[in-house]
Amino acid sequence: MTEQVSAFLEKSIVCPVCSKESRQQKLKNRLCSSAEQESDQHVIRWNWTDPQYEGIKPQFYVLLHCPSCSYTDMIADYENPSGDIKFGGIKKLFESLKGPDKEFLKKLTPLIAVHPMTFESAMNAHLANIYIQELPQEKEYKNLVKLGRLYLRAAWLWRERAPQSKAVQASGVLADIERLTTETEKPLTNTEERIERLQTMLVRRVKSLNLSPDEEKSHPYQKVLGGLERSVGEIHQALGRLREFMQQDASGTLVSSAKGDSEYVGHPSYFEFLMAMTKYWPKLPLNERDCLKEAVRYFTEAYFTELNFDEVERVMTTNALIVDLHLRLEDYDSALQAIASVYKAGMDGKMTLQKSLREKKKDGKLSEKDEMQVESQISRIDYVLQKTAERRHEVKDSKVKSMMPRIQPILDENKGKAIEDIETILTDAGIPEDIVEVLEENGTLGGGQPNGKAKADTNTESSGKRGGLFGIFAKAG
Ligand SMILES: [Zn+2]
């Protein structure tokens, strides 16, 4: 313990909201650096300056919270709020929280303990920060990138706690339940987004009436908003509970009346504590998937409001992250959509540049230096377009692979039939047309020839990097 304590620095820090000073524990700077990362930037191995620190989880120590007023924020923003342009508005909303609206934070933040910092403590701190950042109802007052980062960090905490992000890897009924749960969640996400847009409009309408804050709060529209939010919340909670149970089921610990050593502040488990807290926050994220879904939603919103092809690296990194998060959610269509949006934005940007280049040339207004600058902008976009096209190929590949367990039995059953017939059978069985098209292109459907080669290829993970389903040799007609 004493060794570990020496990794920490105790410091008096003033709360950016209530101005009260409190003693805060911070992990000292430069004790560690990332040694290995997952595809969504989650560090899974650290290089420590001193091996005695190994075992400390740096992800736990990224937030500070005020014991007086419960305000919680990322360390840098807590210490220097002026760096965050949305801080003023959020502070106002935070200060006006009273009664039941403050209850969530009042219950949560006293459970954040630094020594020893546990998963639960760290998660509570993240949830408190997210709750505060979610206070603005209108998108333009929200800190989109920060919310994305916070949800992503919370997702990492869940993953570290239960490493297999997919609860059910098994086949059979459990796998079917998992698949159906995911399919149920997808349209729900769209519905939630639409309800949120509706909410923004209704709030805007109420605001335009120039009412007093109390009149605003009791306006009839607020009741509709509350009702919609509760209904969405109830489905969200039921699905969250289902995912928790599926995970327990898969690991063989799902029993009725389980009350073991996992008790948390009077609740049978930390999960049940969170379920109880949904009373104050109906859409409280309950697992890794919930967090990933919100992260990708906020990153996407932030991304397209500030897409700038002058910063190619940033465009590529953010897009790669967005695509990766969709893939983690097994949402291949959204991943492809994200790729298509960047591709289109790139094409549009390129056309605009080419047009202005032509016009300036015609008017004789173009210096050599300007021309070179535009040319280099265009080549940067070309780079993005090329990378995006490659990524699209890879995602399609993954999409087909993910569906092979459903496709293969159909193919086996219908061996020797004409391609057109097999195509119809596949589409009737619910296999999307773009997938059937890929299967046709790469020869998996046979085509009068013995379909040995192409099919064997789809079954072998190790058959070459770009071989597999997109192998150029697999064209069978
Ligand atoms: Zn405070």
Please state how the strands of the largest beta sheet are arranged side by side: 1-2
**What is the strand tally?**
6
Q: What best-fitting shape do the alpha-carbon axes yield?
A: globular
Helical content band: 55-70%
Strand portion = 5-15%
- Provide the list of bound ligands, each named once: zinc ion
Residue-averaged pLDDT: 84
The helix tally amounts to 17
Q: Separation of termini?
A: 68 Å
Secondary-structure blueprint:
Blueprint: H1 2-5, E1 8-14, E2 21-27, E3 32-37, E4 43-48, E5 63-65, E6 72-74, H2 75-79, H3 87-95, H4 100-108, H5 119-133, H6 144-161, H7 173-207, H8 213-217, H9 220-250, H10 270-277, H11 288-305, H12 312-328, H13 332-362, H14 368-413, H15 419-428, H16 433-441, H17 452-459
Antiparallel strand pairs: 1-2, 3-4, 5-6
Helix pairs in contact: 5-6, 6-11, 7-9, 11-12, 12-13, 12-14, 13-14
Bound molecules: zinc ion.
In brief:
The chain is mainly α and 477 residues long.
